Predict the structure.
Amino acid sequence: MLKPLKILIDEMDDGWDDKLRKLGYDAYSVKKLRAEGHKLRTDYSVINFAKENNMILITRDAESGQACHENNLPFILLDNDEIFKIIVEKLKQL
């Protein structure tokens, strides 16, 4: 059984919420929430929404990641450093 965890997927990775839900996660998309009428146009609004709803933010936006870090909010930053780590791990498997 998965740990109850609410996940907010930032705009540029819309669709990951659907994939995560298929795996049993409680995941939401900024883009879809905006389409439903939520005011999520700015980084501040997105971060605040995640905080108010006890969500972990998954983002590629370094500024959003830094803001979460500075405010002790849970996040996963998918920046170039993280992508590079994945590449190195894959190369080690060859």
About this structure: Strands lie at 6-9, 26-29, 55-59, 75-77. The helical segments are 16-22, 30-35, 43-52, 62-70, 80-92. The chain has one domain: 6-92. DSSP finds five helices and four strands in the chain.
